[in-house]
């Protein structure tokens, strides 16, 4: 009969295997996995303990399971992240050089946009900017694959944004390469591409963070920046 330690290790192994296979799991997938591992799905503490113990076991391999929140709808995800290797270079084992170049161009346009999204036609036009010309039909297939692999997502209007997987796995890459464009959420300090911006001081807040903040403030919704504090959505009146 297995002792308690071997049981825990087996759970960690099966837990990790799912992340190695898919890269990222949403809440529903995590609950299904916990059920298979005989871990109570209604206990947040049990999940946190499993994530923590698994992370301790895989830390020597520069891997870590991190929790992330989808910027637009607040959905929770868990993602396996390499803490050392450059994320973009690691993707070279999955995508061709041309596909990676197109992905970089897509990231650049999304990060540089005002609302953290670009339209499908604008995305397809990026094929003219890559070194090896890619046809529009092929490019659409590549974008569909990026979406299936959960690097990007499309809203109901067909606009493309970076998914929580990109924000988690490419966090340092985005901060290093696009530091002049990237803003961090004033509440949670994570990268914020989709969110509300203060009309007066320009700070940015995730939609979910803003909802939580303003629900505590009541009717008077003010900017959380100490040097601002104006009513959210309004400019400070100049005297």
TrEMBL record:
Q: Name one GO molecular function term.
A: zinc ion binding
Coiled-coil annotated spans: none
Q: Which Pfam families match?
A: SMC_Nse1 (PF07574), zf-RING-like (PF08746)
CDD domains according to UniProt: RING-CH-C4HC3_NSE1
The UniProt keywords, alphabetically, are: Chromosome, DNA damage, DNA recombination, DNA repair, Metal-binding, Nucleus, Telomere, Transferase, Ubl conjugation pathway, Zinc, Zinc-finger
Recorded hits in InterPro entries, A to Z, give: C1-like_sf (IPR046349), Nse1 (IPR011513), Nse1_RING_C4HC3-type (IPR014857), WH-like_DNA-bd_sf (IPR036388), Znf_RING/FYVE/PHD (IPR013083)
Look up the domain of life of the source.
Answer: Eukaryota
GO cellular-component terms in the record?
A: chromosome, telomeric region; nucleus; Smc5-Smc6 complex
Query: What are the EC numbers?
Result: 2.3.2.27
Q: What SUPFAM superfamilies is this protein classified in? A: Cysteine-rich domain
Q: Which reaction does it catalyse?
A: S-ubiquitinyl-[E2 ubiquitin-conjugating enzyme]-L-cysteine + [acceptor protein]-L-lysine = [E2 ubiquitin-conjugating enzyme]-L-cysteine + N(6)-ubiquitinyl-[acceptor protein]-L-lysine
Q: Name one GO biological process term.
A: double-strand break repair via homologous recombination
Locate the Non-structural maintenance of chromosomes element 1 RING C4HC3-type domain: which residues?
185-224
Which compartments does it reside in? Answer: Chromosome, Telomere; Nucleus
Q: What is its main location?
A: nucleus
Family the entry assigns: Belongs to the NSE1 family.
Complexes and interactors: Component of the Smc5-Smc6 complex.
What name does UniProt use for this protein? Non-structural maintenance of chromosomes element 1 homolog
Q: Whose protein is this, by species?
A: Biomphalaria glabrata
Gene from which this protein is expressed: 106061827
């Amino acid at each position: 009969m297995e002792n308690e330690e071997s049981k825990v290790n087996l759970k960690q192994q099966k837990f990790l295997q799912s992340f190695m296979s898919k890269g990222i799991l949403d809440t529903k997938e995590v609950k299904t996995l916990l059920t298979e591992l005989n871990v109570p799905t209604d206990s947040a503490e049990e999940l946190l303990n499993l994530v923590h113990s698994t992370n301790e076991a895989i830390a020597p391999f520069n891997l870590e399971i991190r929790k992330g929140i989808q910027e637009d709808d607040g959905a929770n995800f868990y993602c396996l992240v390499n803490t050392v290797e450059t994320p973009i270079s690691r993707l070279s084992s999955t995508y061709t050089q041309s596909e990676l170049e197109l992905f970089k161009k897509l990231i650049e346009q999304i990060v540089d946009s005002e609302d953290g999204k670009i339209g499908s036609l604008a995305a397809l036009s990026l094929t003219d900017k890559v070194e090896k010309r890619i046809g529009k039909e092929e490019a659409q297939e590549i974008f569909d694959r990026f979406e299936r692999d959960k690097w990007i997502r499309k809203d109901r209007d067909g606009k493309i944004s970076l998914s929580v997987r990109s924000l988690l796995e490419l966090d340092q890459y985005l901060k290093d390469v696009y530091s002049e464009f990237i803003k961090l959420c004033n509440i949670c300090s994570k990268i914020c591409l989709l969110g509300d911006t203060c009309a007066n001081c320009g700070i940015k807040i995730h939609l979910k963070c803003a909802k939580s903040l303003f629900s505590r403030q009541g009717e008077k919704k003010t900017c959380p920046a100490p040097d601002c504090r104006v009513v959210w959505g309004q400019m400070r009146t100049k005297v």
